Amino acid sequence: MIISISNHKGGVGKTTSAINIGVGLKNEGKKVLLIDLDPQANLTQSLGVQNAGKTIYHAMKGDQLPVVPATVDVVPSSIDLAAIESELASKIARESVLKKLLTPHKDKYDYILIDCPPSLGILTINAFTASDEIFIPLQAEYLALSGLSKMMEIMELIRSELNPGLKIGGIFLTQFDSRRVLNRNILEGVKDQFPQEVFKSIIRENVSLAEAPISQRHIYDYSARSKGAEDYMALVTEIIKKHRKT
Amino acid sequence: MIISISNHKGGVGKTTSAINIGVGLKNEGKKVLLIDLDPQANLTQSLGVQNAGKTIYHAMKGDQLPVVPATVDVVPSSIDLAAIESELASKIARESVLKKLLTPHKDKYDYILIDCPPSLGILTINAFTASDEIFIPLQAEYLALSGLSKMMEIMELIRSELNPGLKIGGIFLTQFDSRRVLNRNILEGVKDQFPQEVFKSIIRENVSLAEAPISQRHIYDYSARSKGAEDYMALVTEIIKKHRKT
Ligand SMILES: Nc1ncnc2c1ncn2[C@@H]1O[C@H](COP(=O)(O)OP(=O)(O)OP(=O)(O)O)[C@@H](O)[C@H]1O
Ligand SMILES: Nc1ncnc2c1ncn2[C@@H]1O[C@H](COP(=O)(O)OP(=O)(O)OP(=O)(O)O)[C@@H](O)[C@H]1O
Ligand SMILES: [Mg+2]
Ligand SMILES: [Mg+2]
């Protein structure tokens, strides 16, 4: 199962979710690979993985997929990836480069999670073309919710042109503070607009999640009894249950 | 004076700052133009500007610069802009397209502010090539601070290759909560690393700033006595003073 963790709105918790869902799934006995598809390389850095050698950039240019064993297996990224958009512009089937790289690895893992950059360019299109599902972390704020319909349009386009099996795996709220009226209103709005897709588990605002990357640790290692660890574990349990049913 | 408001880290307050610094400068009697250079078009949407007609996308493809009079003059954006990276890939002097569009308008305004997307691709490179200064909104969090050195590298590259006059106009902290130890530690770190560039004014976490875009209002209109309005006005005063000196 290949899952893109994507939202072109910036700062909504894509990287934080890729790491803590990924490790959570591993803690439940699943074999997991994380792909850092963002030139910012936040996932690579947050897990303390070296990126001085081969990265996803080299693989998209023709090399082997560089899998680095860490807490979970990781394919690192680096700032070089920022150049890939113009470098792939004239390549035949440029949308399917990542799909071809991941297909040989699909049987080795239960879950391959792709941390997407905050944009709808060629990298995100590659992720959607390679994926079975898209998970959308959503900040309960106005600008984040209003961008959702554009995401759905792009997804629909990729489904009809390149990847007929692609579907929304789910939407989950992040950085949620129930004391804020704005957050509570947006939650109601999302439940109305996307009743089927919204996960019951909500990730609350929790500073431990922002502190964990400083020492290159995931939340279960940094602060196992925090709200952050509790919320991501609940989400992981819900994800596993949802996939068992289908 | 052309200023890019940029940080490739997502969700740090670029759009919120472009709007509230822009309107703040106008309230102090300056002539201001805002450029939305993000395919998400959050600035366009937050000011209630129509983007069904011509946008910055059309201008970068050869049309006139479409200036829409609103609270301040705005050049709107739309999702079409997401395609510009591959469409400009083989164009001669693709980095200077925006500079050529803005030069004829430079004398009509005291300030032209460019709201940049969360990436270091061709759009941000165009913004840096066209600008006199870069303002960097910085969330006082670990991942945001660590991305700063990459921004500086790209800026250095543009300065040596395309725009020798480019400089850092300043770094200012956003979404700051002095109760969070993490925020206070990062503030100390930034002051040590960039003593010259850090503005004294800090933008505190304030939910009014997140609510204002819902009714397409800037902060001075939505909640003039809020911390958000107070903080952005202080920053605007500091910006004007800094430019008066030079
Ligand atoms: N639930 C949470 N509570 C508190 N802080 C959080 C939470 N989730 C993420 N953060 C912090 O918020 C910031 C943004 O999160 P993150 O970098 O994961 O988002 P992103 O969507 O990957 O950003 P980008 O768009 O730049 O890739 C980070 O500093 C992170 O540590
Ligand atoms: N000082 C603040 N206090 C509280 N909320 C804020 C503040 N500044 C911005 N916000 C909110 O945080 C979110 C991110 O801000 P904004 O969209 O301006 O960031 P950005 O850097 O432009 O994001 P992107 O990288 O997606 O372009 C928005 O929902 C905004 O309303
Ligand atoms: Mg990220
Ligand atoms: Mg923005």
Mean pLDDT of chain A: 95
What's the main sheet of chain A like?
Answer: 7 strands, mixed
Give the number of DSSP strands of chain A: 7
Strand order of the largest sheet of chain A: 3-4-2-5-1-6-7
Report on the structure:
The structure is a homodimer of 246-residue chains. Chain A has 246 residues and is α/β, with parallel strands linked by helices. Chain A is built from 12 helices and 7 strands. Chain A has helices at residues 14-27, 42-46, 56-60, 84-88, 97-102, 122-130, 142-146, 148-161, 181-193, 207-211, 219-222, 227-245; strands spanning 2-5, 32-36, 68-69, 73-75, 111-115, 133-139, 167-174. Chain A has a 7-stranded mixed sheet with strand order 3-4-2-5-1-6-7, sandwiched between helices. The longest helix of chain A is centred in the last third of the chain and has 19 residues, at 227-245. The two termini of chain A are 12 Å apart. The A-B interface holds A 8-12, 15, 39-40, 42, 45-46, 79, 82, 85-86, 88-90, 117-122, 139, 141-143, 146-147, 150, 153, 180, 182, 207, 210-211, 213-214 and B 8-12, 15, 39-40, 42, 45-46, 79, 82, 85-86, 88-90, 117-122, 139, 141-143, 146-147, 150, 153, 180, 182, 207, 210-211, 213-214. Residues 14-15, 38, 42, 115 of chain B line the site of one magnesium ion.
Please describe the topology of this protein.
Two copies of one chain form a homodimer.
Chain A (H helix, E strand, L loop, with lengths): L1 E4 L8 H14 L4 E5 L5 H5 L9 H5 L7 E2 L3 E3 L8 H5 L8 H6 L8 E5 L6 H9 L2 E7 L2 H5 L1 H14 L5 E8 L6 H13 L13 H5 L7 H4 L4 H19 L1
Parallel strand pairs in A: 1-5, 1-6, 2-4, 2-5, 6-7
Antiparallel strand pairs in A: 3-4
Bound molecules: adenosine-5'-triphosphate (2 copies) and magnesium ion (MG) (2 copies).
One adenosine-5'-triphosphate sits at the interface of chains A and B.
